[in-house]
Design a protein that fits this description.
With about 325 residues, the protein is of the alpha/beta class. The chain has helices at about 20-35, 55-65, 85-95, 105-110, 135-140, 170-175, 190-200, 215-225, 255-260, 265-275, and strands spanning about 10, 40-45, 75-80, 100, 150, 160, 165-170, 180, 205-210, 230-235, 240, 305.
Length: about 325
């Protein structure tokens, strides 16, 4: 039997805020997962939403990843530079009848929905515009010249296998309903952009935090509609603070940039991540030094609690 081909994974930070220890854990695990198997690791900056991108944060992301000891294959890919491919995928979905135009605002969606269903508390789209318009021109006439595009989602659970958690099922129709793949301003939505970019890059292994588990089902629907392959999924628990809330980009004092600029040894951060993943790491080690020890079966199933007061590398 032939040995499996080395995997292709990716790091995909978004330059909308400073990276924190939760990002460090996910990115280190993603890097370890592919490098330990002789695979390729790509780097993509997800800068498509220009309204949220902050100047200088793309460069900060790269410095933070290099500080952690991570490397990547090939040039850094900017998601915003692949707009032509994203719009081509949108047109394929439109031509196949998988989409319909929608003129609902976010406020109208919230008011029309009977109750929140999705894991982030957002209201499921009630299908107001499904079958409402005979053409895009008609929709734009009703929407003041603007219309989004939504994917038709049929009832029933979307099943997939997570390599760490086993079989999963998400009822996309009940949780979010027909979801947008482009906004009223014409901007391609995150779910479609990720699907297209991963397929174009040959990414076949995706490891990320489990707050994106529900997104996986939506991405699977898009992959099927476009006839694209699905990667192997690995979803890992979040890093939370002592209060049980996940670390956020707005918590700049826990950012990797702040730690780096304070002179913290990156090996101490890497070793904390390793211990949080069940690896024995009594002394500071570099990311590459831990490659022989990588074992995803040791990952705890519950969220990791990070207590700044208990970690020596944050001491003044």
């Amino acid at each position: 039997m032939a040995a499996p081909a080395p995997p292709t994974g990716r790091l995909a930070p978004s330059p909308t805020g400073l990276l924190h220890l939760g990002h460090a854990r996910s990115f280190l695990l993603a890097w370890w997962q592919v490098r330990a198997r002789g695979g390729r690791c790509l780097l993509r900056l997800e800068d498509l939403d220009r309204s949220r991108v902050r100047p200088g944060l793309g460069e900060a992301c790269l410095r933070d990843l290099e500080w952690l000891g991570l490397d990547w294959d090939g040039p850094v890919v900017l998601q915003s530079e692949g707009a032509a491919h994203l719009h081509a995928a949108l047109e394929r979905l439109r031509s196949a009848g998988a989409l319909y135009p929608c003129v609902c605002t976010r406020r109208e969606v919230r008011e029309a929905a009977s109750a929140p269903h999705s894991s982030d508390g957002a209201a499921a789209y009630p299908g107001t515009c499904r079958g409402r318009f005979a053409s895009l021109a008609e929709a734009r006439a009703h929407g003041g010249g603007a219309a989004a595009w939504r994917l038709r989602v049929e009832p029933g659970a979307v099943a997939f296998r997570d390599e760490l958690l086993g079989c999963q099922a998400v009822d996309v129709a009940a949780e979010v309903g027909d979801f947008p793949v482009s906004g009223r301003d014409g901007q391609i939505a995150y779910q479609l952009a990720v699907v297209v970019d991963d397929a174009r890059s040959g990414v076949d292994t995706v490891l990320r935090a489990d707050d994106l588990m529900r997104s996986t089902a939506r991405q699977l629907l898009l992959q099927r509609a476009l006839g694209l392959p699905s990667p192997r999924w690995y979803h890992v628990p979040l890093v939370c603070g002592p209060d049980g809330r996940r670390l956020a980009k707005r918590t700049d004092d826990l950012s990797l940039t702040a730690l780096r600029e304070a002179g913290v040894d990156p090996r101490v951060v890497v070793s904390w991540v390793a211990r949080s993943c069940g690896l024995a790491c009594p002394e500071p080690l570099a990311a590459a030094e831990l490659l022989p020890s990588v074992d995803l079966s040791l990952l705890p199933a519950e969220p990791v609690v990070f207590d700044p007061a208990a970690e020596g590398f944050l001491a003044p």
